[in-house]
Design a protein that fits this description.
Blueprint (H helix, E strand, L loop, with lengths): L17 H28 L7 H24 L15 H10 L4 H12 L6 E7 L4 E7 L12 E6 L6 H4 L4 H11 L2 H12 L1
Antiparallel strand pairs: 1-2, 1-3
Helix pairs in contact: 1-2
Length: about 200
């Protein structure tokens, strides 16, 4: 099965340029293309798996990186569609965050995610829901195929690789980018994900 790149429609974003978003979507499309190409190459190499064992092993290592890049961007981009919407005060998601972190305000959630995303180095700041323990988990994935809370549904994914901000803010501009990201965040997308994951 071949994956197809999804399409996204963004409003004019405050502090994130159209050029950055166009290039960012192009990078995502590359992940989709690369994943499909690796799968196709593996099928060819599997005809003589003993002879091609080393090449197949190396492609397997790369496969999850491409898949992680594809899928995490499919969480990231919809959060910027539809224009910014506020967090529902005292809604189910805010209440769950208050239970786990003592404050369910958008300011507290943003502070947590900025602290995680602002760490040195590229990666992803991710907020998950654990349906078994019925609690939120927040973490950092330095490589998009490593460092995840395995099997937990993603509620909020913040890309902090340099490609998300370097064109607008330069190499040292991660903090300004994070401010812009949360200024444009459609919280209703995050809240809907929580409702589905917690059902």
């Amino acid at each position: 099965m071949a994956y197809e790149a999804k399409t996204f429609t963004f409003p004019d974003l405050d502090g994130i340029s159209k050029k950055t978003m166009d290039e960012h979507v192009g990078l995502y499309q590359g992940y989709v293309k690369n994943f499909n190409a690796i799968k196709d190459n593996m099928q060819v190499l599997m005809v003589d798996s003993e002879k091609n064992n080393h090449a197949i092993s190396e492609l397997e290592r790369r496969l999850s990186f491409e898949f992680g890049g594809m899928r995490l961007h499919e969480y990231y981009f919809p959060q910027l569609e539809g224009g910014p919407t506020p967090l529902t005060a005292n809604g189910p998601f805010a209440a769950a965050f208050m239970k786990d972190y003592g404050d369910g305000s958008s300011e507290r959630i943003i502070k947590l995610m900025k602290n995680i995303g602002g760490m040195r180095g590229p990666g992803w700041a991710i907020l998950y829901w654990d349906p078994q323990a019925k609690c939120l988990q927040a973490g950092f994935s330095g490589e998009q195929h490593q460092g995840h809370f395995v099997t937990l549904p993603i509620l909020l994914a913040v890309d902090v690789w340099e490609h998300a901000y370097i064109s607008d803010y330069g190499a040292q501009g991660k903090g300004k980018y994070l401010d812009a990201f949360f200024k444009n965040l459609n919280w209703s997308v995050v809240e809907k994900r929580f409702e589905e994951a917690a059902a």
